[in-house]
Predict the 3D structure of the following.
Amino acid sequence: MQPSNPTSQSEQSTVRVLIVDDMPQVREDLRILLQLSNEIEVVGEAGDGLEAIQQAELYHPDVVIMDMEMPVLDGLQATEQIKGRLLARRVVILSVHSEKGDVERAMQSGADAFVQKGSSYLTLIEAIHSNKS
């Protein structure tokens, strides 16, 4: 998938999203779901936290959808770096875990929202739009 940048004024009102998950099938499913919305543009994908930082440096997405557990650099460490370096406006953690401690750790890392994997499409869309500046 080739990342892209918005060029027209109508595209500038879209939310530019970077998808980060170590499972290629999850990334593909998320991309397909997000493409159902005319207000969301997927600008890139990454398979681990380090790659997420590199993609965020290149594309400065509005929102990063970040898996919590990944190889190389986990989602929470990547979130800390992305938010600390102002590479994206917001980060939504997407995780199979939903224990109170997991949510607290995500928020402490700088995440702006936490969505459990398996939640409805509308829940994810709401988290993305609630993070729109």
User: Anything to note?
Assistant: The beta strands are 15-20, 40-46, 63-67, 90-95, 113-116. The chain has one domain: 15-63+72-129. Residues 1-11 have pLDDT under 50 and may be disordered. The chain has six helices and five strands.
